[in-house]
Amino acid sequence: MVRVVTFGYQTWGHRTLTAALNSGHDVVLAVTHPTSSHPYEQMFSDSVEDLARAHEVPVHVALRADDALIDAVHRAKPDVILANNWRTWLPKSVFDLPTHGTLNVHDSLLPEYAGFSPVLWALLNRESRVGVTVHRMDETLDGGPIVAQQSIPVGPTATTTELVAATTDLIEPLVLSTLSALAEGTLTDHQQDPARATYFHKRSDRESRIDFTASAADIELLVRAQSDPYPNAHFRFRGERLRVIRAHVSRGRFGGTPGRVTVECEGGIAVVCGSDAPNRPAPAIVLDRLRLDDGREVPATEHFGTRAGYVDEI
């Protein structure tokens, strides 16, 4: 039987701890972060701490790997650490402590999309597949040898929210099979190819702003990528911030200046987008549903009425 310590937070950490609990191995400690009021922390917020306590697993709550955390891991004497969505740096003295080291679970198909928000970035880049990788933790961010990986296809209308749900469903079977192989001595390592490695940074409000000089297809993709509960794609019109909940690419073409709010079209309001030459007609982005600053969600036709004009410049 393998002695397991988990490091994790939110739904990703919860799924990893669930797998460890169901594996038949001995979960001797669960390490997690404290509950936060930050909006991001409220997304996909299944509690690792609550799950551990419900199964009478000792819990250590910490923001980072301080002396108290390191001491708790030493006393647990793990054979392996499983980490998933542990948000701060782990020193070598921690990840190299167990007999079998530390296995990190990352929601991308490494070596591509190391770093942050990998599913969202992958969707924006029109990747055909997303997935989950289990790799050995070393001193490089998401760069250690791969021990297991599984992928799923990206559909033509997929949203980030749908893909995150689908990839989190991969965590438990992948962790279970990894622990089984570890216990049986059949787990194999595959070095990542540094020539294929890509890294992506955290997203901020800047990445959610709509640039209407982009194509309508790119804007429609951004709307799907920034689906609830993620911060929605947005723009300003006459000083008001409008979040786009649903939009589609027009069947017809519109010429003129990108960012011009025009007429009702196909059930929504058409806004001129970028094309391959100034003023040349191209598909517009049709805004279907908006979220206003007061939280109300309304049809774009209801909000704009007969008001045309240009979106505000940033």
TrEMBL record:
PROSITE patterns, per the entry: GART
Positions of the Formyl transferase C-terminal domain: 205-303
Which InterPro entries does the UniProt record give?
A: Formyl_trans_C, Formyl_transf_N, Formyl_transf_N_sf, Formyl_transferase-like_C_sf, GART_AS, Met-tRNA-FMT_C
Q: Which GO terms describe its cellular component?
A: cytosol
Keyword Magnesium listed? The answer is: no
What positions does the domain Formyl transferase N-terminal occupy?
Answer: 3-170
Q: Keywords in UniProt for this one?
A: Protein biosynthesis, Transferase
Fetch the SUPFAM superfamilies from UniProt: FMT C-terminal domain-like (SSF50486), Formyltransferase (SSF53328)
Q: Where are the transmembrane segments?
A: none
Which Gene3D superfamilies does the record match to this protein?
A: 3.40.50.12230
UniProt keyword annotation of Protein biosynthesis present: yes
Q: Which GO terms describe its molecular function?
A: methionyl-tRNA formyltransferase activity
- Which family does the entry's similarity section mention? Belongs to the Fmt family.
Name the record gives this protein: Methionyl-tRNA formyltransferase
The organism that produces this protein has a lineage beginning with: Bacteria, Bacillati, Actinomycetota, Actinomycetes, Mycobacteriales
